[in-house]
Amino acid sequence: MNNNSNLNSQTSSLRTHISFFGMTNAGKSSVVNAITNQGLSIVSDVKGTTTDPVRKAMEILPLGPVVIIDTPGLNDSSKLGELRIKKTKEILRETDIAVLVIDSTVGKSKEDEEIISLFKEMNLPFIEVYNKSDINLDFTPTNSNSGNTKICVSAKTKYNIDELKELLGHLIKDTSKENPLIGDLIHPKDIVILVIPIDESAPKGRLILPQQLVLRDCLDHNAIPICCQPSELDSILKTLNYNVKLVITDSQAFKEVSKIVPTSCLLTSFSILMARYKGLLKQQILGAKALKNLTDFDTVLIAEGCTHHRQCNDIGSVKMPNWIKNFSNSTPNFIFSSGRDFPERTTEFKVIVHCGGCMLTQKDMENRVKIATKNGTPIVNYGIAIAYMNGILDRSLEIFPDLHSLL
Looking at the domain 16-170, which fold is it? Predict the structure, then answer.
């Protein structure tokens, strides 16, 4: 496989998401096409040509692997305009860097000002791009004290398009932050066992993203990862004379695995590591405590970031509700959401139980936690919830002494 194939196959959730916003016919889609050097978005003189967000994962120099998102016009007044604008605002949750394209022959609109306010509210880095400088040759953006980055371009003549890409590249470097996954917990030649059940819920022919990331991080730090299924774990531990640094398990096997792994060995889960990687472990540990206080009159939101096919014994729609009912000795009402469908208001929910969010960008997962926190709703991911309900969360956090005290 060549390098380009590797780059293009990188999971979208790990790429920087750059979203383009603007009024209809500000030339937003033309700017997208100029940056990408391809006809990613349909352009037309007819207002509202972009009817749905258009996503494309690609490699753009000097930006690296990114997802480009072209959104519908902010002022779309067609029959579906209200729905389109709602979708545009939803895109903000997954956006790492926003680009607001403004028609320099018209100037900044009320809608432009409104979305700039949203950028600032969400602490989202953004660039104001004044398009059509080939028509409005003398236009210069008004300076402000806000420190916003502004640039004049022409999508038609490609004027300043390379400079715009350079600006985006600098923003990516400035906003890139990577929390540790497992590398800071292990040393070269440490043996790490990854317990990966291969059952009806496992994807065919591949590992899920958290398993891939942990396995690669072990190798990157010269540790010795050993992958096995739960049924093989006991014999492997005995063969190694329990000389193991860490056992990491899939959440659904937590209870079974915890009985096999002696307390002399550290134990945690892929979900817990991913929550830390996304910088959300502390909030979700605190959120787990809400599970013990549920009553028959409460409502629980079970949210997933992907839209996979539901199976007869699905973890989100079947297993998790049953585990929660058994643990809380109650029968709360369950509401389910998937994909990008996540509510702006969560006050009706006693607790939100979320998947690990491996298919969501870090920004999207952060924003979901922020929404829950703003509404005063505890939120916890599957792995932490399962460990808590099985009485092994404290053990699973022994590897993180600074967080263990939260329980």
Answer: Rossmann fold (3.40.50)
pLDDT digits (tens, 9 = 90+) for 331-377: 999 999 988 889 989 999 999 999 988 888 888 898 899 999 999 99
Determine the CATH number of domain 281-392: 3.40.50.11410
Cis before 62? omega within 30: yes
Within 8 A by CB and 6+ apart from 330, the residues are: 294, 295, 296, 298
Residue closest to 163 by CA, chosen among 283, 35, 265, 267: 35
Residue 257: Cβ within 10 Å count: 23
Read off the amino acid at residue 8: N
Helix or strand holding residue 379 (H, E): strand 379-381
The pair phi, psi for residue 231, each rounded to 5°, is: -65, -20
CB within 8 Å of 236: residues ≥ 6 apart? 193, 226, 228
**Close Cβ partners of 212 (under 8 Å, ≥ 6 residues apart):** none
Secondary structure of residue 184 in the 3-state scheme: helix
Nearest CA-CA partner of 59 in 39, 34, 37: 37
pTM: 0.79
Domain residue ranges of the chain, discontinuous segments joined by +: 16-170, 191-274, 281-392
| Per-residue pLDDT tens over the stretch 125-151 | 999 999 998 887 777 776 554 556 899
Secondary structure class of 397 (helix, strand, coil): coil
